[in-house]
Design goal:
The chain has helices at residues 13-30, 73-77, 89-93, 99-111, 124-127, 131-140, 170-181, 199-203, 220-227; strands spanning 2-6, 35-39, 53-54, 83-86, 115-120, 152-156, 188-191, 210-213. By secondary structure, the protein is an alpha/beta fold. It has one domain (2-223): Aldolase class I (TIM Barrel). Strand 1 (2-6), helix 1 and strand 2 (35-39) form a beta-alpha-beta unit. The structure holds 2-phosphoglycolic acid.
Amino acid sequence: MIFAANFKVNHTRVSTAAYMQALAGRMNEKKVEDRVLVFPPATALDAYKGDFTVGAQNAYPAISGAYTGEIGVMQLEEFNIKTVLIGHSERREILGESQEVIAEKFQFFLSRSFEIIYCIGEPLEVREQGDEAVAAYLLAQFEGIDTHGEKLIVAYEPIWAIGTGRSATVEEISSTHKMLKSHISAPLLYGGSVKPSNIQEIIGVDGVDGVLVGGASLEVDSFMALVTA
Ligand code: PGA
C-alpha cells in the first residue's frame, strides 16, 4: 500500500522537521514496509532522513528562471526531491490550472525522470449525473498525460469528498477505481476525507493501492494510525 500525506498550506519549517523526525522514528519502531510519501509546503522542503519519500506539492516546469513566486527543478534538486504532485483539484479549481497547463507540467517533470502523483477528480454535479458522466469527466483529465510511465501514481480524489468529512462510499470508490483501472496500469490511490475511522474499509476496496490524505495526515499520530491500519 501507498500512504501519501499532503500538508497543503499547513505546518511550518519547524513543525515539519519535528513531524518528519517523529514519523521516521515511528515507522522504524513499527517496521512499516508500505510506501510512505510526504508533501510539505514548499518552504519546508528539505533533505529529511527517514524511510519515506518527500515530494513537492507543486513546481513550475522549468529548471530555474523568471517565474515569480514559483519553484523549479533547481530548488527541488537541492534536497534531492524527485517527486511532485500534479493536477490536484485545488490547483485546478482555486489556482485556475487548465488541463493544458497541467499536461505541460506533467510532460516536463516526466522528461526529467520525476515520480509524479497525478490527481484527478470530479465535482459533485458530475457525480450526481451518474457513472457515465463521471467516467467521461475523469478520462478527460488524462488528456495530454502519458499514463504508461513507470514512475506514475494516479490519485482519484472526488472534489466533493476533499476536506468535507464525507468520503466517497465503498461502492463509489470500487466502481470508479474499476473503471479507471481499465485505462491505466499505474497504482491508483483514493483521496478525500480518508481518516482513521474509514481507512480499513477504503484500503479493503479492490483496486485501491493506497491513499492520499490531507487533514488526517497533519498529526503524526493520526497519519501513523492510517499507515498501520
Ligand atoms: P482531505 O484531503 O484528506 O483533507 O480530504 C485530501 C487531498 O486533498 O489530498
